[in-house]
Amino acid sequence: MTDSISSNRSAFKEFIASISTISGDLSNITAPPFLLAQNSTVELPQYWADHPQLFVAPTFEQDPAQRALLVLKWFLGSLRNQQYAGRSEDEGVKKPLNAFLGELLLGSFKDNDIGETRLLSEQVSHHPPVTACYLWNDQCGIRAEGFTCQEITFSGSVSIKQKGFAVLHIDKFDENYLVPLPDVKVKGVLSGTPYPELTGTVHLVSSTGYVAEISFEGKGFLRGSKNSVDARLFKVDMPEDPLYHVHGQWTSDLTIHDVKANKDVETYNVTAENSAKMSLAPLSEQDPWESRRAWEGVIASLQKGNMQGVSDAKSKVEQGQRQMREDEKGSGREWTPVFFTRADNVPVFDQLQTVWDTKTPIEPKGGMWRIDKEKVESAKRPFHGDMTPGNQRRGRSGDTVNGSQKSSSTAAPGEAAQQKQTKASPALNRSSDKEDSKAPPTNRELDTKQVETFLRNKYSSVR
Question: Where along the chain is composition biased (Basic and acidic residues) (predicted)?
Answer without folding.
Answer: 313-332, 370-384, 431-450
